[in-house]
Amino acid sequence: MTDEKYGDQMYQYYIGIADSVGNLSSNTYRYATDIQEVRRCLKGVTGEDISLENLYLTPDGKIGGLPDKAADLINKTKDNARIERMKDALVDIIGKFRISGDLGIPDFTSQFQFKDGAFSVADSGFAVDMGALDGRFTPQSSGNMYSDMYKYQFKKVL
């Protein structure tokens, strides 16, 4: 009952105070919060938990692997800012999941406690190694600023 009625407010409260969230880079923070937002949206549409690990991009730029009801909403709705935001988040999640590989998708593992009239959060961090995840999302420099520009060595210079 509490989760259904106040879940979103509790989530907002959590991400505002939890140490495990506050220590993330902006890129990793966005990934983790996008996951939670997309999961809530998809559950609201389908009534079930959707495995994000099984989603993919189709050649025509649509999100594949969604149940029909969610696929129709995400892939066919036009001119709706919230749905466009969800689609953008899904594209980002699919891309980042490919980068993160075996590290998995970050899930918050906190609990809300109400004891003796006080509300608190027991922050258990994430279910995955967020430091390793952040390392994979952070571009690494090879020391040569042109290393990504020129992939071929030329034998002659004209």
List the main descriptive attributes of the protein structure presented here.
single chain, 158 residues, 6 helices, 4 strands
Quick summary of this structure?
With 158 residues, the protein is mainly alpha-helical.
Q: The biggest beta sheet, please?
A: 2 strands, antiparallel
Radius of gyration: 20 Å
What's the average pLDDT? 77
Tell me, briefly, the overall form: flat
What is the helix fraction of residues, given as a range?
Answer: 40-55%
Low-confidence stretches: none
Strand arrangement in the largest pleated sheet: 1-2
* Beta-strand proportion: 5-15%
User: What is the count of β-strands?
Assistant: 4
The tally of structural domains comes to 1
Compute the separation of the termini in Å. 74 Å
Assembly status:
single chain
Tally of DSSP helical segments: 6
Q: What are the secondary-structure elements, in order, as H or E?
A: HHHEEHHEEH
Structural class estimated from helices and strands: mainly alpha
Provide a descriptive summary of the structure in words:
- The chain has one domain.
- A two-stranded antiparallel ribbon has the order 1-2. It has a two-stranded antiparallel sheet with strand order 3-4.
- It has 158 residues and is mainly alpha-helical.
- The longest helix has 21 residues, at 26-46.
- The radius of gyration is 20 Å and the shape is flat.
- It has helices spanning 2-17, 19-22, 26-46, 68-76, 81-100, 130-137, and strands spanning 56-57, 63-64, 111-115, 118-122.
- A hairpin with a 5-residue loop joins strand 1 (56-57) and strand 2 (63-64).
- Helix 3 packs across helix 5 (81-100).
- The mean pLDDT is 77.
